[in-house]
């Protein structure tokens, strides 16, 4: 079974964290919320507190790492040294590294976007250090997936589901949730 970690820091964008976990679990992917705060209870940018499945210190290898955006969540993720090291290691191993909304700035700051196409929340393109900015809802370049905003959380999650399963499974999921039908 494929394993995915979605990282939570205080001030994360709730839709961007929960949507990928929900949709990935629907297709049999072992998707977990991971707190980088030292506490499993993490409060999002809109005051909703979620219970993470794991603390950062409890994680193992994964097929995919996902960063939700939100402020100050993105800055809090960026400040976590262990997470930064893990993202670089994952990227160098040619495994999936994914970020949505403001969170692609974390990948940019780590050099992961160098020479790639990437997308980010409108107006934040300068944070895509080394990348060619695009305005796509979801952008896949090599082993890096980026997406734009809370409104693209479903297309982002469906893309992740397809990458970890197959086109038919993702199409069935899209139909099951009645997305753009």
What does this structure look like?
The protein is α/β, with parallel strands linked by helices and 181 residues long. The protein contains six helices and eleven strands. The protein has a seven-stranded mixed sheet with strand order 5-2-1-6-7-11-10. Helix 5 runs antiparallel to helix 6. The longest helix is centred in the first third of the chain and has 13 residues, at 14-26. It is globular, with a radius of gyration of 15 Å. The model has no long low-confidence stretch (mean pLDDT 98).
Radius of gyration: 15 Å
Number of strands: 11
The biggest beta sheet is recorded as: 7 strands, mixed
Give me the secondary-structure category: alpha/beta
Shape: globular
Terminal-residue CA separation: 29 Å
Q: Beta-strand percentage?
A: 15-25%
Strand order of the largest sheet: 5-2-1-6-7-11-10
SS element count, helices: 6
Please mark out the parts with pLDDT under 50 across 5 or more consecutive residues, or reply none.
Answer: none
Order of helices and strands: EHEEEEEHHEHEEEEHH
Mean pLDDT: 98
User: What fraction, in percent, of the residue positions are helical?
Assistant: 25-40%
């Amino acid at each position: 079974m494929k394993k995915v970690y979605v990282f939570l820091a205080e001030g994360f964008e709730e839709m961007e964290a929960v949507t990928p976990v929900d949709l990935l679990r629907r297709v049999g992917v072992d998707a977990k919320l991971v707190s980088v705060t030292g506490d499993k209870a993490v409060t999002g940018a809109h005051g909703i507190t979620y219970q993470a499945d794991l603390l950062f210190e409890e994680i193992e290898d994964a097929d995919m790492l996902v960063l939700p955006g939100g402020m100050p969540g993105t800055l809090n993720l960026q400040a976590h040294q262990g997470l930064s090291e893990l993202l670089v290691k994952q990227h160098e191993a040619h495994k999936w590294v994914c970020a949505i909304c403001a969170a692609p700035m974390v990948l940019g700051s780590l050099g992961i976007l160098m020479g790639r196409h990437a997308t980010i929340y409108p107006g934040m393109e300068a944070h895509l250090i080394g990348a060619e900015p695009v305005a796509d809802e979801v952008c896949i370049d090599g082993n890096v997936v980026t997406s734009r905003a809370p409104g693209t959380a479903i297309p982002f999650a469906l893309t992740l589901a397809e990458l970890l399963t197959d086109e038919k499974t993702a199409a069935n999921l899209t139909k099951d949730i009645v997305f753009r039908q």
